[in-house]
Design a protein that fits this description.
Elements lengths: L7 H7 L5 E3 L2 E5 L2 E2 L2 H9 L4 H9 L7 E6 L8 H13 L8 E6 L5 H10 L6 E5 L3 H10 L2 E4 L8 H8 L4 E3 L5 H4 L6 E2 L1
Parallel strand pairs: 4-5, 4-7, 5-6, 7-8, 8-9
Antiparallel strand pairs: 1-2, 2-3
Length: about 190
């Protein structure tokens, strides 16, 4: 084991999945390192068909856009702000004609009110409250996503944002809490 926390056997078993290995750090993309928890991600996601299964659940084709947001459905997570932004994009015809879905993975006290808000904003069929997901499905959603969206109003250190980065997904996020330390404009996302 070295500073990655991975044993030599772990590194050898995941080597075929990694684009490169440099200086003892496991790399998924040019600037994203893979810590020990990402070893589990690679082992768990040894099922390329998972993305297809998840997309089929929503009736999506491979080229359709998937916006993903992950978190506890609580007031401070800003999911109501996300719904308002999506409605604005639809009204301004930014999303006109595009085949897209916004998948929200998580559960919490705001689930019922968010479901009502989705209907009230006319976003039925476009925004899907997926509920809690198994680790396998969660990583599948990250892989299926075109863009990760994190609308939080308050955040310490966002694990969901780090997971999106481990899956090499572009990120749109607020500038709350520790997010500006992770999401850098034009590098890996846009705050």
């Amino acid at each position: 084991s070295d500073d990655t926390g991975a044993s030599t056997n772990d590194k050898e078993s995941i080597k075929p999945w990694l684009p490169c290995q440099r200086k003892g750090l496991l790399m998924r993309a040019k600037t994203v390192t893979m810590p020990l928890c990402a070893l589990t991600l690679v082992r768990t996601f040894d099922q390329p068909m998972r993305v297809d299964v998840l997309r089929r659940r929503l009736g999506l084709e491979a080229e359709d856009v998937v916006l993903l947001s992950v978190g506890r459905l609580a007031a401070n997570k800003g999911f109501d702000v996300l719904l308002g932004a999506l409605r604005t994009l639809v009204d301004r015809r930014v999303l006109r004609g595009a085949s897209w879905r916004c998948v929200v993975v998580g559960s919490g006290p705001m689930q019922a009110s968010l479901a009502r808000d989705i209907g009230a904003r006319g976003l039925d069929g476009r925004v899907v409250l997926q509920g809690s997901a198994s680790g396998e499905d969660l990583h599948g959603w990250y892989e299926a996503a075109t863009l990760f969206v994190h609308p939080t109003l308050y955040e310490g250190s966002s694990i969901a944002t780090l997971e999106a980065m481990a899956h090499a997904r572009p990120i749109v996020a607020t500038t709350a809490g520790g997010l500006p330390d992770k999401v850098r404009p034009g590098v890996n996302g846009w705050p």
